[in-house]
């Protein structure tokens, strides 16, 4: 049996879908929740095979609930079932860790198929969702983070790869220590790294050091 936790804040939706799913020989609704917080608690307690997650709920939405579940249980398989196809819903839900994305306009048998497929390791997306993702990918050109660095910032990054301290960089470039610190901070931010060591690793990894 595929054990399912069903999360939706509309009781009539839960009743209708649950009735169909419970009639399936291989699917069992083990619990229901009408909001994100109880959904998180039930998911972590019961460890269902599949979580059907609504997005828009009163207290904690499905995106936040998905994020919290995945943070504590990375192997959770969550199927978003919602009425929304907005970009501010689709992408955050998938980034939060949702495995599949279905619309409430889907027939109950389609949701059952999605449950079986997701349980088997597949990711099921509505055609409209797939189209949105493909469009976003085509519109987003590949960019090297270091291309954002100014000439001075690149110069400072290369001096960092040589093991120079901020003061040594300031002395070599004849600029104030405070200015160097600002440039270093900009370099870390543009390269999306946490510290100088990671910046140096980035430089070597991308063959910036001659």
UniProtKB/TrEMBL annotation:
Keyword Transcription regulation: yes or no?
A: yes
Kindly give the SMART domains that the UniProt entry links to this protein: HTH_LUXR, REC
Q: What are its GO cellular component terms?
A: cytoplasm
Q: Which CDD domains match?
A: LuxR_C_like, REC_NarL-like
Q: Taxonomy-wise, where does this protein's organism fall, top ranks first?
A: Bacteria, Bacillati, Bacillota, Bacilli, Bacillales
Task: Give start and end of each Response regulatory domain.
Answer: 3-119
Q: Which InterPro entries match?
A: CheY-like_superfamily, NreC/VraR/RcsB-like_REC, Sig_transdc_resp-reg_C-effctor, Sig_transdc_resp-reg_receiver, Tscrpt_reg_LuxR_C, WalR-like
What is the protein's species of origin?
Oceanobacillus zhaokaii
**Which GO molecular function entries does the Swiss-Prot or TrEMBL record give?**
DNA binding
Set out the biological process GO terms recorded for this chain's protein.
phosphorelay signal transduction system; regulation of DNA-templated transcription
What are the UniProt keywords, alphabetically?
A: DNA-binding, Phosphoprotein, Transcription, Transcription regulation
Organism superkingdom:
Bacteria
Domain (HTH luxR-type): give its ranges: 142-207
Residues with the modification 4-aspartylphosphate, per the entry, are 54
Subcellular location(s) per record: Cytoplasm
Protein name in the entry: DNA-binding response regulator
